[in-house]
Amino acid sequence: MSLTREQNPAPATAPARPGAVVAPPAEPKVPHSFVDYLKGMGPGIVVALSWLGTGDLINSSVSGANYGYVLMWALVIATLARFFVVSALTKYQLCNSTNDQTILEGFQRVWRGFPMFLGVCSVLLGIVYHCFLFLGAGTALYYLFGQFGGDWGIFMWAVVVLGAVVFMASRPNEYKWLEVVANAAMAALVLIFLWALIGSGIDVGAFINGLTFSMPEDRGAYGAWLVVVAIIGAVGGSVANLMYPYFVADKGWRGPKYRKLQVYDLLFGVMTLVVLNIAIWIVAAELMRGRGATIEGPEDLARMMELAIGPAGPTLLWIAVFFAVFDNIGTQVYAFPRIAVEAVHKTFPKRAERFGSLVHRNDPDAPHTADGAAPADLEEIRHVRSAALLRDPMFRWIQAVLLIPPILFALPSGPGLVAITVFGNAIQVFVVPAMIVGLIWMTNNRKWMLKGYANKWWENLILLVIGGIGFWAAWGIAKGLPDQLANLFGG
Fold first, then answer.
1. Which helix (H) or strand (E) element contains residue 5?
2. What is the pTM for the complete model shown?
């Protein structure tokens, strides 16, 4: 074995956390049939549900209630933009010729400071996301259990959710737990909203028109086009897109032989997300807009489901929302700290050496074999590095930062969401263009990619379009930030 460790006294089999032992897992089977592909899928649904959250539920409902079927095409394009960006990120991880084990290693080749930049953004945006997620989870349980707890009910149930997340995070093989919860939640959401779709009906003509780039009249300070490009740009360049390559690694997919399975897996997750969002949008357009009603909060969403399904509608909705949001919290509190800790280890090699992630081959630049298979010890290197990241106490501290402060937003007199929203937009302004530029650089470098896997012209065109939209969206957000901050601080 040519595996070496630089001045690291910790053994390779040191436990990553209680109950877990570092040992390279058995290599997953490469599917060759339709049934094998279905059995092999998993990360796509986990990450798709983590992208969904309460935001999509509310946003699709509000859009359907306020605009009918118009602008539905923007939702489809935004989701497909995310597919192409995430697929390109994962292609680098699976098909690079440099033996890079994670996507952050690729970004580090573009610029030494890239990993730390993305790590900091993942923590800051993780805090933003969790402010909404805990509020959503607490709200779901609050209504599910008859508004028990009064004014403090939402906060009380948010604390219950916090306890459940901490319990799941302490279990070995946390990814398996996430996959089970994600599959159950996605199945419940799809069934519930397809049932609601049957109850509401669909205007086929309006639906087709909603997919033909029709535009509503401008409303408010921002034109419709700016709203559209902001949606597409933010979704395509979101730091949450970095989670999927890590879930792919947790699944044991390594090397280009898993590329086809990975594409089908991601496509399945994204298309499920598209179908779900369209179903929510149509139900809102048919049942709320037709009655002149609007959706401004979760109570209105429950009312919509009652109109579609009957008395059981709100209960089914809150069950599905809870599991979706719970999976969101569990997924992000698992993935974002890993990204952040890896970024620290990439930036500060002494810390990496201390906790055992500074592991390499005697010949670190040895390419993959001709058939694209990774050398046997590369899988052990990946697994040892992954365990070292979880062993670093910083991993748990970052998890605490992602969990404790956001729960305060569920307090009856907790701080408003305006500040955290402005803060999140400010971060997104910088992360969207940077990620797209770095990704294009990585996937076009023929020295870094295996033969035949560097971007084709049409792949570059798609990424350039998404990147251009991202720049435009970022500029629009940046121009509006001074006024938002002035209003926020009373100036």
1. strand 3-5
2. 0.83
Nearest residue to 248 via CA among 26, 27, 44:
44
Other CB atoms within 10 A of residue 374 CB: 19
Which amino acid is present at 274?
A: V
Contacts of 413 (CB under 8 A, 6+ apart): none
Enumerate helices (H) and strands (E) in the chain, giving the number of each. 18, 2
Q: For the stretch 417-439, what's the b/e string if a residue is b when 16 or more beta carbons lie within 10 angstroms of its beta carbon? A: eeebebbbbebbbebbbbbbbbb
233's tokens: 């740009």
State the sign of the Cα–Cα–Cα–Cα dihedral 310, 316, 321, 324: negative
Closest-CA residue to 61 (of 420, 234, 305): 305
Whole-angstrom distance, CA of residue 455 vs CA of residue 475: 27
Of 161-165, 356-360, 384-388, the poorest mean pLDDT is in 356-360
Q: Is the pLDDT of residue 14 over 60?
A: no
Q: Closest by alpha carbon to 308, among 196, 195, 192?
A: 196
- Pairwise CA distance, residues 387 & 16, whole Å: 5
The domains found in the chain, sorted by start residue, are 31-100+126-239+268-332+403-488 (1.20.1740.10)
What's the sign of the alpha-carbon dihedral 299, 301, 307, 313?
negative
CA dist 45 and 133 (Å) reads 18
Rounded Cα distance, 271 and 94, in Å? 22
Cα 159-163-168 angle, rounded to 5 deg: 145
User: Residue 301 in contact with residue 77, Cβ under 8 Å?
Assistant: no
Cα–Cα distance measured from residue 283 to residue 170, given in angstroms and rounded to the nearest whole number: 39
Q: Identify the CA nearest to 432 among candidates 227, 242, 226, 234.
A: 234
HSE value, Cβ hemisphere, 13 Å, CA-based, for 72: 25
Distance CA 383, CA 23 (A): 7
**Higher pLDDT pick, 360 / 244:** 244
